[in-house]
Amino acid sequence: MLRRNFKCSHYSAGNHQNPIVEQLWAARAESKKQHRTSAGISSPYAAFNTPRPPSFSALSIHYPFSTNEFLRETYKSPWGRVRFGSILEDLDACAGNIAFRHCVCEGSWEEPLIVTAGVDRILCRDRPTIEHDMVLSGKISWVGASAMEIVMNVTSQDKSWLEARFTFVSRSSQTNKATNIVPLLVSDSVEERSAFEKGRAAAQRKKELRSALACNSHSYTLDVDKLAKELLAQATPLLTLPTLAPPELILLNQTELQNALIAQPQQRNMHNRIFGGFLMRRAFELAFATAYTFGGVKPNFVEVDDISFLAPVNVGDLILFKSRVLYTSETSRVTSAEVNGDLQAIVEVESFVVSPEKVESKLSNKFHFTFVLPGKISCKKVVPCNLAEARRMAIRMLADKEQREADIKNVLSLSSKEVEKENYEITPEEAAVLPRFSRILSAKPEFLKKK
Predict the structure, then answer these.
(1) Residues 167 and 262 in one domain
(2) Are 202 and 120 within 8 A, CB to CB?
(3) How confident is residue 25, by pLDDT bands cut at 50, 70 and 90?
(4) φ/ψ (deg, to 5) at 62
(5) 201 in a domain, yes or no?
(6) 288 and 368, same domain (yes or no)
(7) Residue range 316-343: average pLDDT?
(8) What is the CATH number of the domain that holds 254?
(9) What is the structure's pLDDT at 415?
(10) Residue 194 pLDDT > 50
């Protein structure tokens, strides 16, 4: 009989995660242990009222794919590239470590409870192969009263292929109320100042949007209602005379997929709740399958917009994931890593905590993914079944339109710079909006030509 000793001298939630998350959580557990035993950290920035620079909590992780076969196989997708769902888990775990490092203070009897409030954007500019090493890095870009923004980057072969912006909030572990965060010490460097201002502007936009939705802002509601009515009018033939409707139309509910699972203890985080990165990975994989079955070709991931963490998910909860294609359009985002002309599908995923005993469910998370359907020049046009679906589609379309306008504005701002023909050093912020900068520069568009 084959026998094995399964005793473990040290156990943590990270033991059941991928190797990178396990290391990150082990490091955070060690930091918590030091905080309990030595009343904090020994540093010039240890006191709460002392602002801390981004470098104080910055973190970088190396993935030795070229030499570590176990790690390479762990992150390998069926198509020989990096499995993006696993990267989502790492992004959340790494950002959490950065947030904890910034918030922990000397002399504090209470450990900060750091919670992922949302993900503003995850932008994929390439799809690297698994044979080359990779580096994940991140640092804080903006800090408010009880919230902070963390910018994450993933590079391969010295090229940035992914950027993400996470928002974390600090809560009291005793009352669950918002608590103040250590201020951020921003230097005079252009990069840090620009990142801080962008983070502050993003936080203000989200605040204004929440306010508009809460009080039914007149102008915003008019825009949504107008577009919703137009979308519903397009669906009229399929709803009233389906046998005579144009064949390219498809109802939104006919694009839906769903799956359900029980939240297991192995999927919990360090606060004994379900790991947000796990939820993001499961949502991404369902969204990928939704775009795949809708378009008929293997989709290429482009970006995630507006991930909302609305309610915690606990061990033992029944989680129901529902996905649907909200709409399709031609690739027009200046941030897209694809060739313009391919179709893109915008997929929404919602996760619910379901309680069969109480016959109720609660929305816990909402995700919006954008995929490109390579080689597709036409596909079904998604139309709503009712006004509620039409408004859902309209809200996402208007948000994406605003994002495209912001991207174009960022690109056009380059026209004021001196662009040298042979030697031009692009900044990280420019790289975020010009993933194909070298190709664009070689084409010498008018707005990049030196006046």
Answers:
(1) no
(2) yes
(3) confident
(4) -105, 135
(5) no
(6) yes
(7) 76
(8) 3.10.129.10
(9) 46
(10) yes
Q: For residue range 282-305, list pLDDT tens digits in order.
A: 999 999 999 999 999 999 999 998
Q: How far is CA 415 from CA 404, 405, 418, 431, 435, in A?
A: 18, 16, 8, 15, 17
Do 294 and 114 touch, CB atoms closer than 8 A? Answer: no
Q: Classify residue 47: in a domain, yes or no.
A: yes
Summarize the confidence of residues 56-75 as an average pLDDT: 93
Judged on CB neighbours under 10 Å (0-12, 13-18, 19+), 36 is exposed
> Across all residues in the chain, what is the average pLDDT?
81
Q: Based on the structure, what is the number of domains in the chain?
A: 2
Asked if 169 and 220 sit in the same domain, the reply is no
Identify which has the larger pLDDT, 391 or 377: 391
Sheet holding 113-124, edge to edge: 59-63, 134-143, 147-156, 159-171, 113-124, 300-309, 360-373, 343-355, 318-330, 257-262
In which residue are the tokens 């990178």 written?
20
Distance CA 288, CA 241 (A): 32
For 263-317, strand residue ranges (E) read 300-309
Residue 108, in any domain of the structure: yes
Q: Which helix (H) or strand (E) holds 235?
A: helix 218-240
Instruction: Extract long-range pairs of 195-202: CB within 8 Å, 24+ residues apart.
Output: 195/141, 195/142, 195/151, 195/429, 196/141, 196/142, 198/141, 198/142, 199/141, 199/142, 199/149, 199/165, 200/142, 200/144, 202/120, 202/142, 202/149, 202/165
The domain in which residue 88 lies consists of: 13-178
**C-alpha distances in angstroms, 286 versus 36, 104, 128, 298?**
41, 36, 22, 13
Binning pLDDT at 50, 70 and 90, where does residue 18 land?
Answer: confident
Say whether both 368 and 320 belong to one domain: yes
Q: Does 351 lie in the same domain as 295?
A: yes
Q: Per-residue pLDDT for 220 more than 50?
A: yes
pLDDT value at position 410? 66
Sign of CA dihedral 332, 337, 339, 341: negative
E-assigned strand segments in 51-112 = 59-63
For 219-235, b where at least 16 C-beta lie within 10 A, e where not — what string?
A: ebeeebeebbeebbebb
* Ramachandran angles phi, psi of 29, nearest 5°: -65, -40
Q: Is the dihedral of CA 431, 337, 440, 202 positive or negative?
A: negative
Residues 241 and 356 reside in one and the same domain: yes
- Same domain, yes or no, for 170 and 245? no
Closest CA to 82 of 66, 59, 60: 66
Query: Is the full-model pTM beyond 0.70?
Result: yes
* Residue 49 belongs to some domain of the structure: yes
